[in-house]
Amino acid sequence: MDTIEDLVAGLRAAHGAAAQGGGERLRARHAQRGKLFVRDRIEMILDPGTAFLELSPLAAHGLYDGEVPGAGIVTGIGLVHDQPCVIIANDATAKGGSFFAETVRKHLRAQEIAEEHGLPCLYLVDCGGAYLPEQDRVFPDRDHFGGTFWQQCRMSAMGLPQISVVFGGCTAGGAYIPALSDQVIMVEGTGRIHLGGPPIVKAAINEEVDGETLGGAAMHSRVSGTSDHLAPDEATALQKLRELVRHLGARRVDPPPRAPRAPDPAFGTPQDYAPVDLKRQVDMRALVRSMVDASELSEFKPEYGSSLITAFAHLHGYPVGILANDGALFTQSALKGAHFIELCDQRQIPLLFLQNITGFMVGSEAEREGIAKNSAKLVYAVANARVPKYTVLVGGSFGAGNYGMCGRGFRPRFLFSWPNARIATMSPDVAATVVTDLRRGSLKSDASEDEIAALDARTRAQFEAQSDPYYATARLWDDGIIEPDQTRDVLGLCLSLAAGAAGDTGPRPVYRM
Ligand code: COA
């Protein structure tokens, strides 16, 4: 079995490879055209020395023969003149920055985060529109390409600035990103916007026209007015973008209510506790302490429902209510969790879920105690809590435990995984038992023991592969895999984005469970 050090090294290697975009040949061509790489562009718009919280850098990992690293798009949150902004930037070295299903998902997810936190969106556009061979997975449905434009229009109407810089050829869907922006900057020579490129124009109306005449930056800045600023080169365009953000007059980050205090080094770091072998219990209390300010926890009901740790703490100075699994969830732990969530909701304290969960307890004793309805109370409390919620998969995330501990379906503001995490309806062992049992009982035909053994092996292999955190992050089931020792800083940044926002001040009852 890999150690956590091996897993972290593997994660760094995967991030490094994804950051290379479409590979050496395409990067060389990109550079020859005088274009900057997508991460260099982002670096140039951020305040110097500040962090960039990149989201889902391993989207599309292992898909499309590895030709679309990061799904051809870089998204994340960074500071521009002290203003947190969501940045959505195409990587033209990956299939011309065209959109695959995971690209759309990643783009939409970044917009969702911008809307939820009231942040401006900066689009660094270098995009060939829908990747045509995949058009049925990209174009027609609600949460496909059209959904990104719908979001852009709505966010603009909400007063969340939408600003684009156009670096490359933007056709069709790619053209709509700048066309629907509040303000547009175009780079002379390389930036193009056209609903149909020269070949489409030729086919449609038999007009022969070159790309620059049809949709070049000079034409759009001086004639059509689609662009508001003509920049002679990329560096100037990026500086112009910083200038536009400086004049937004939008909200800045609220400082933490309390001075942050580092965790007590005596507790080590989160990586020391990462549950790699999910069959072994780890010291979850120490794991939590290694992450929070001064390693201080104020536990709620420590003597009751002990398989769920519930505690008030601070993280980078921000108050937070933490729920962390320490074994399977029983009726008592579910009720305690629901009660704690109500307390945090009443006090407007954000919730942090640290998942390492096999599921809720099964068996006749658990059923007689009412685990079905009591676990549902936890799920209900999670769904209706109005405070910001954050989830980190620090170990296993199986079954309904995923729901009770605020899995993706329960809309946490952010959900991150550790490289040792596993996510599936159930573990490979349990799945193999269930599936072979079903086969034995099937009315279709009798299965030989050899067939059952083969089914057992197939099911195990399927569940092993699909519960892998890379499989999950490739499909945007999380916002990225992070290193255990980055968790405190990542969460601090996430909490800072929500701090100071007006909360829902309606009545918040606390029903004793
Ligand atoms: N659909 C399918 N493939 C696309 C694509 C799209 N929309 N846009 C780019 N590609 C592919 C190219 O075929 C090429 O693939 P390859 O590496 O396997 O040969 C790769 O992406 C890079 O494209 P290329 O044209 O070599 O890059 P470029 O930097 O010179 O030009 C674009 C980039 C986006 C300007 C140009 O590819 C283009 O105009 N694409 C088509 C745009 C279009 O008509 N979109 C309509 C979508 S609704």
Outline of this structure?
Helix content is 39%, strand content 17%.
Which structural traits does this protein have?
16 strands; alpha/beta; binds coenzyme A; seven-stranded mixed beta sheet; 513 residues
Write the layout of secondary structure elements.
Elements: H1 4-18, H2 24-32, H3 38-45, E1 52-55, E2 73-80, E3 83-90, H4 101-117, E4 121-125, H5 145-157, E5 162-166, E6 169-171, H6 173-179, E7 183-187, E8 192-194, H7 198-205, H8 211-215, H9 217-224, E9 229-231, H10 234-246, H11 284-289, E10 298-299, E11 308-315, E12 318-325, H12 331-347, E13 351-357, H13 364-369, H14 371-384, E14 389-398, H15 400-404, E15 414-417, E16 422-424, H16 428-441, H17 449-466, H18 469-474, H19 487-498
Parallel strand pairs: 3-4, 4-5, 5-7, 6-8, 7-9, 12-13, 13-14, 14-15, 14-16
Antiparallel strand pairs: 1-2, 2-3, 10-11, 11-12
Helix pairs in contact: 4-5, 12-14, 16-17
The structure holds coenzyme A.
Residues 92, 95-96, 98, 128-132, 168-169, 171-173, 197 line the site of coenzyme A (COA).
